Amino acid sequence: MQISNKKIKQLLGLIVLLFALGVFPVGNVLAKNPLQQEDTCAVYFTGTGCPHCAKVNTFFEDLFEKYPNLVIIKYEIYQQQENAPLLSEYNNSYGSGLGIPLLIFGKDKFLHGDVPIIERASVFLDQNTANPCPLADGKSIAFEGLNIASLPGRPKIATAVGCELGGTQNEEPTKDEDLTLTKIFSLAAADAVNPCALSILTAMLLAIMTYNPKKRRNILLAGLAFTTSVFVMYTFYGLVIIRFFQLVKALTSIRLFLYKFLGVVAIVLGLLDIREFLLGHSACHVVPKVGKLLSKITSPTGAFAIGAFVTVFLLPCTIGPYVIAGGILSTISILKTLPWLALYNLIFVLPMVGITIVTYFGFSTVENISGWQDRNLKYLNLAAGLIISVLGLAMLLGWV
């Protein structure tokens, strides 16, 4: 069957038309925009709990919508300790500084601080339709040719589609929360058996009973008022401690060693408690200082007021574990620390609540409880010392 020349010409004409309409326009567009498909890459240093970094993280969400070819190699340096040295390496190569948040596009092309990043990142991206990824050694490479698995530390690759690319590792918030719970619980338990806090409570209850032994209800109310006052004041002190550490962490070079330093402090405090046990030093020196104040307590209202005041005298005895806990919690925002502080201080005051209830219901007398404490203070020191020492060693060795 022969095909006529007319049909052949029609078929060839159709092919030419399709080719002209379909291929050439696409080819022309690509030719006019050779960099359209190339990515704009940057390196970003951030830290969990850094309020300025949180502002930048929110800003990035809008930035990815406006610049879909943007790729950010993200290094978190507070929780991921292996990322921390990279901040110094980039500073050596780019002179970018040691503060965060920090966004690096290349040599002499970096933005430090939330305001500069939010105000000027778009300007750079408008002027640069493509940008290679800056590497720690000062070199750069297009993202398309980058072997992500070869990147040092534990980076995360953020893109417009919000996915984690190969070679990165996902965060494990559940594991981190479990570890934080273990540390906070251990420190609070060690603090809860502090001899001074319990001695002051029993001295206060004894003063209440001596003033009006027939009103047992006052024992319950005074004990709970005193305990509530301690809880509130210690929560306030905790916020101050955490805020202090957050300000210190603005000096990132100090922050890099803070966790290990807290581990060393924990070990030293634990060994001092164990030393007290071995030497048989079990007396609490705070009670004589506040004895006159305690003897004047005659009501639950007075117990609350005195409770707030004597926390100042208690701090030297109980501040050690609390400072360590504050350093650990300083990696998260102030608002998120409130549940952790509530948990810590709830554990801390539980023995006080227990003593109050036992005394009120007559399961034991204040004198018997006070005598038991005097006989076992050194063992309480030993228990607290062992808990804090083991936790400090685990922090120092990176087990928790």
UniProtKB/TrEMBL annotation:
The scientific name of the source species is candidate division CPR3 bacterium 4484_211
Q: What is this protein called?
A: Cytochrome C biogenesis protein transmembrane domain-containing protein
Question: CDD domains, alphabetically?
Answer: TRX_family
As recorded in UniProt, coiled-coil segments are: none
Q: Where exactly are the transmembrane stretches of this chain?
A: 184-207, 219-242, 254-272, 302-335, 341-363, 379-399
Cite the SUPFAM superfamilies for this sequence: Thioredoxin-like
Enumerate the UniProt keywords alphabetically: Membrane, Transmembrane, Transmembrane helix
